[in-house]
Amino acid sequence: MMTVLLVATDEEAAVLRERIHRDPHFRVIAHTPSPRLALSQAHVLLPDIAVLDPSMDGDSDPVALFTGLRSLTPPSAVVLRTTPATAPLPELRAVLEEGAVHTADRDDHEALMLALRTIGRRRASCDPDRRPDYYEE
Q: What is the pTM of this model?
Protein backbone atom coordinates (compact mmCIF):
# COMPACT_ATOMS: atom_id res chain seq x y z
CA MET A 1 0.00 0.00 0.00
CA MET A 2 1.25 3.45 -0.93
CA THR A 3 0.84 6.32 1.54
CA VAL A 4 -0.34 9.76 0.43
CA LEU A 5 0.05 13.19 2.03
CA LEU A 6 -2.47 15.79 0.79
CA VAL A 7 -1.64 19.48 0.73
CA ALA A 8 -5.02 21.12 0.22
CA THR A 9 -7.83 22.87 2.08
CA ASP A 10 -10.03 20.72 4.31
CA GLU A 11 -12.86 20.83 1.78
CA GLU A 12 -10.69 19.80 -1.16
CA ALA A 13 -8.84 17.20 0.94
CA ALA A 14 -12.16 15.53 1.82
CA VAL A 15 -12.98 15.14 -1.89
CA LEU A 16 -9.50 13.90 -2.72
CA ARG A 17 -9.39 11.49 0.22
CA GLU A 18 -12.66 9.87 -0.86
CA ARG A 19 -11.44 9.54 -4.44
CA ILE A 20 -8.03 8.14 -3.48
CA HIS A 21 -9.47 5.64 -1.00
CA ARG A 22 -11.56 4.05 -3.76
CA ASP A 23 -8.31 2.44 -4.90
CA PRO A 24 -7.24 -0.11 -2.27
CA HIS A 25 -3.56 0.44 -3.06
CA PHE A 26 -3.45 4.03 -1.73
CA ARG A 27 -4.13 5.48 1.73
CA VAL A 28 -4.16 9.14 2.73
CA ILE A 29 -2.21 9.36 5.98
CA ALA A 30 -2.47 13.13 6.58
CA HIS A 31 -3.53 16.43 5.08
CA THR A 32 -2.84 20.08 5.66
CA PRO A 33 -3.40 23.30 3.68
CA SER A 34 0.07 24.53 4.71
CA PRO A 35 3.13 23.64 2.60
CA ARG A 36 5.38 24.42 5.57
CA LEU A 37 3.45 22.05 7.84
CA ALA A 38 3.27 19.46 5.04
CA LEU A 39 7.05 19.37 4.86
CA SER A 40 7.24 18.89 8.64
CA GLN A 41 4.68 16.07 8.44
CA ALA A 42 6.57 14.49 5.54
CA HIS A 43 9.79 14.35 7.59
CA VAL A 44 7.95 12.33 10.25
CA LEU A 45 5.51 10.27 8.14
CA LEU A 46 7.69 9.67 5.05
CA PRO A 47 4.77 9.44 2.60
CA ASP A 48 5.28 7.63 -0.67
CA ILE A 49 3.42 10.39 -2.52
CA ALA A 50 2.50 14.01 -1.83
CA VAL A 51 -0.48 15.45 -3.73
CA LEU A 52 -0.39 19.24 -3.91
CA ASP A 53 -3.53 21.20 -4.74
CA PRO A 54 -3.68 24.86 -5.83
CA SER A 55 -5.93 25.48 -2.79
CA MET A 56 -2.96 25.06 -0.43
CA ASP A 57 -1.97 28.12 1.62
CA GLY A 58 0.91 30.14 0.22
CA ASP A 59 3.01 30.10 3.41
CA SER A 60 6.23 28.87 1.79
CA ASP A 61 8.19 28.71 -1.42
CA PRO A 62 6.77 25.93 -3.66
CA VAL A 63 10.23 25.01 -4.92
CA ALA A 64 11.41 24.52 -1.32
CA LEU A 65 8.45 22.20 -0.72
CA PHE A 66 9.23 20.14 -3.83
CA THR A 67 12.93 19.90 -3.12
CA GLY A 68 12.24 19.10 0.53
CA LEU A 69 9.87 16.26 -0.41
CA ARG A 70 12.34 14.93 -2.96
CA SER A 71 15.24 15.09 -0.47
CA LEU A 72 13.59 12.70 2.00
CA THR A 73 14.96 9.19 2.29
CA PRO A 74 13.25 7.61 0.47
CA PRO A 75 12.07 10.59 -1.58
CA SER A 76 8.35 11.27 -1.83
CA ALA A 77 6.90 11.36 -5.32
CA VAL A 78 4.96 14.56 -6.02
CA VAL A 79 1.72 15.11 -7.93
CA LEU A 80 0.89 18.75 -8.63
CA ARG A 81 -2.76 19.39 -9.43
CA THR A 82 -2.84 22.31 -11.83
CA THR A 83 -5.22 25.01 -12.99
CA PRO A 84 -4.69 27.37 -15.94
CA ALA A 85 -3.22 29.87 -13.45
CA THR A 86 -0.72 27.39 -11.97
CA ALA A 87 0.21 25.24 -14.96
CA PRO A 88 3.11 25.47 -14.50
CA LEU A 89 4.19 28.22 -12.12
CA PRO A 90 7.34 29.89 -13.52
CA GLU A 91 9.32 29.10 -10.36
CA LEU A 92 8.48 25.40 -10.75
CA ARG A 93 9.57 25.09 -14.37
CA ALA A 94 13.05 23.74 -13.50
CA VAL A 95 11.61 21.17 -11.08
CA LEU A 96 9.04 20.04 -13.65
CA GLU A 97 11.70 19.75 -16.35
CA GLU A 98 13.71 17.40 -14.13
CA GLY A 99 10.74 15.02 -14.14
CA ALA A 100 10.47 14.91 -10.36
CA VAL A 101 6.86 16.12 -10.40
CA HIS A 102 3.78 14.60 -12.04
CA THR A 103 1.05 17.03 -13.05
CA ALA A 104 -2.69 16.46 -13.26
CA ASP A 105 -5.41 18.94 -14.12
CA ARG A 106 -7.31 19.85 -10.96
CA ASP A 107 -10.66 19.07 -12.56
CA ASP A 108 -9.55 15.68 -13.88
CA HIS A 109 -9.77 13.09 -11.11
CA GLU A 110 -8.88 10.31 -13.53
CA ALA A 111 -5.59 12.09 -14.33
CA LEU A 112 -4.82 12.21 -10.61
CA MET A 113 -5.46 8.49 -10.23
CA LEU A 114 -3.39 7.77 -13.35
CA ALA A 115 -0.48 9.72 -11.85
CA LEU A 116 -0.78 7.78 -8.58
CA ARG A 117 -0.87 4.45 -10.43
CA THR A 118 2.10 5.46 -12.58
CA ILE A 119 4.11 6.21 -9.45
CA GLY A 120 2.98 2.91 -7.91
CA ARG A 121 4.06 0.93 -10.96
CA ARG A 122 7.45 2.60 -11.07
CA ARG A 123 8.08 1.85 -7.43
CA ALA A 124 6.82 -1.73 -7.68
CA SER A 125 9.05 -2.69 -10.57
CA CYS A 126 12.36 -1.64 -12.00
CA ASP A 127 11.02 -2.62 -15.41
CA PRO A 128 8.78 0.25 -16.64
CA ASP A 129 7.34 -2.03 -19.36
CA ARG A 130 6.13 -4.65 -16.88
CA ARG A 131 2.78 -4.05 -15.24
CA PRO A 132 2.84 -5.07 -11.54
CA ASP A 133 0.62 -8.03 -10.64
CA TYR A 134 -1.57 -5.99 -8.27
CA TYR A 135 -2.79 -3.89 -11.21
CA GLU A 136 -3.91 -6.95 -13.17
CA GLU A 137 -7.64 -7.14 -13.63
A: 0.82
